[in-house]
């Protein structure tokens, strides 16, 4: 079983400068490799440059620039080139599938925030002394950096990554052979229905509130963004101290919302795996759900378009993103595996339109957002609970009092 750990780094001033230089040099390597691929395709009779060719050039690059590129880990530089190779692989996959390709772009220094070390002990070393009160991670070219290890690391450390978030630095460990921690059986099963009015509803009728972290912080974020855009163009180009503070304030608010959303997902998922042995949920395709509607050309007036409900759809999409269904389901799957619980995804089609009592399917069964009234048998219930109940029935977790 795999598990990732994220810890705050506490570098000295000199180490923080070295970490910034490490990111800058890896960013330069990434952009240089991208430029080589572009030039080879455009100017050298459509020649394709592969990862193996660029990796073989690393030795010459390090020898040519020993003061900068030569002082960092060879393996971490290979990981940066693999990162570019994965971007091109995804690009060609989208081209073949007929999707919007999105050609790999050059990275600015402010947008290149992660350096990967593919193997613990190769360019980096995690200090795994269990009883030492001070934990450190050794990074080639940086030194031994103190780590705020707030929980023990279990399993064997495979990869190490260093990430910058605003003014803070983090180390991310990916471990394998992590032992499972099964919870005692409860004998309870449930189906859950994800929603906007309620974050989720169980098949027993229990509602969990939607915290709406994004909406609660929307006013503060809008004010910070207005302050950022108030700078004249010349000041934005010059990156004045006030502009940098405005940028940092916007980024801090976004990080706050993301952390609140993740914290809520962790606590809710932990409560679910503690209470139930088997949990059924809808197999949601969130990317399709939040896709913008296609424009509708007006046949009578070429160049004009008919209303397609884009504004209302944008509001719904914003609420779906704010709820963080994908984040929650990913965390729930991880915690269920660790706790020895069973997670059952089911087909989500018509779960809110099917009567759990007689099986009648109709869009008219759901009269309002909260009320379900079957037009076939007259069964009435809360609409969200009906959706969760149908999820439980489709997963084989049939409740005797209904099915």
How would you sum up this structure, described in words?
This protein folds into two domains: 3-176, no CATH class; 189-211 and 260-394, Nucleotidyltransferase, domain 5, CATH 3.30.420. The chain contains twelve helices and 16 strands. The protein has helices at residues 13-43, 51-56, 58-64, 74-96, 213-216, 218-229, 233-238, 241-275, 286-289, 310-323, 325-339, 383-394; strands at 3-10, 114-117, 124-126, 135-139, 143-148, 156-165, 168-176, 189-194, 198-202, 207-209, 278-282, 296-297, 305-306, 342-346, 371-373, 380-382. Strands 2-6-7-1-5-4-3 form a seven-stranded antiparallel sheet. A five-stranded mixed sheet has the order 10-9-8-11-14, sandwiched between helices. The radius of gyration is 26 Å and the shape is globular.
List keywords for this structure.
403 residues, alpha+beta, Nucleotidyltransferase, domain 5, seven-stranded antiparallel beta sheet
